[in-house]
What does this fold into?
Amino acid sequence: MKKTTFASIVSICMVPALFWSTEGSAIPSWARKYNTSCYMCHSGMPQRNAVGEAFKNNGYRLPGGNDEAFTRQKNIKIGTADWDSKFPNAPISSSYPQFDPLSVVVTGNLINYKEATHKVSTGAPKASKEFTINAANTASLFIGATVGDNLTVFGELAGFGGAALEEDTDNGAISSSNVDSPVTATLRAVWQFSPGFNFSIGNAFSAVGWNGTGAGGVANISSVLPGPATYAELNFTRGETGGYSIVAGTSMAANYRTPIVAADNHIDDILYLRGKVKLIGAGLLSGANGELGNAYNGLDNQLTVGAGLSYANKINSYKNTGSLNAGASTVGFTGNYAGERLVYGGDVQGAYQNFLAGAAYSRDRDLKLDNYRVEAGYFIYPWLFAKVGYVDIAKANNQIATKKGADVHQPQIIPSVSAWITPSVSLTGTYTIFTKSSDIIGDVTNQNTFALAVRAGF
It folds into this structure.
């Protein structure tokens, strides 16, 4: 297999930047640090390419010991030899980002469309067809910075939005209500013991997935397993060509907005394990060796398989009450996974030239429910990506609430198209189509939807 230096892969991954305006080529935090395009690490945000994957596995530093060489905005050094000699045992020397580590990301749906619904039992109208045109109304503040030689911090302060007009479909009236999510803080602090061996604490930014299932990404196991909330995890990665990665973590069961000191939250509420093997492609740790694939969109020709599990150490049992509302607790799996204690599964993901495909499957030990996600995508141009997916995440809460009388499977077909106006500004149109006409538990027909979303980072 052909060997490639990291310097050459950086130059190759810069090719897509030629298609973009210079104003958008280096605006997020990491891009400013290295004075390069977002396409060095991404094949269409937020999909990571081989360099981006190696960057993450190296504690958010460029692989092969090249971080210092490629850093264009150096950290400010603090502490001098004089201070070190006067206080030899004190942690005086370190470094802090000289570059601005903050980025602003604005998101929102520009267009929303919802089909009309009616009651299954009577056929009476339930909700009328809706078509609305909006402006991007939610902003997030990101931080990404290295501190010293071992610590990296990545975080997001999200949910800056206002009130919106919402129709009360039951009463036929228009009322004002705050439909936006409250402001939330998410943080990932990574300590690199050595390249590929990291310890992380934080919330929401776990390493259990690899490339994300949003715009530009395809299915992996993170889309069919319950996700960790506030966690501590170890990530061990090896592979100069191909390679393997193991992620082990423990998490509190509460929602990530709940403080750590909240009652009934324990660090071992949820235990999870994720392993993957990259059979073909650039190294998980180097990001530079192997066949690169398509230089114009940054995709690495690759084949990766993985497996994982999530275990709820403590969870309320709803079987005796027959109701989700009786004795409900934040401890254990919630939402679609309520009532389940162990969910396990596997996945496969591959890419060749302009094509990506991924499939993931999981099963629950207690309720014996199956979850599926299959997606395939194609880069029509380096800036235009089309994808279609099939998703079936079984609703365990339906099964519990009706004592196994509900149809827990509501599969959806989801075609989407994403266009990147610049590397960090994108438009994504998504159409969600239910394959079944109704969800028995609600006595209301399923509602197909379309949304045109914008994401802009500065």
Remarks:
- DSSP finds six helices and 25 strands in the chain.
- Residues 6-13 form the longest helix (8 residues).
- Residues 1-27, 162-180, 256-262, 316-330 have pLDDT under 50 and may be disordered.
- The two ends are 39 Å apart (CA to CA).
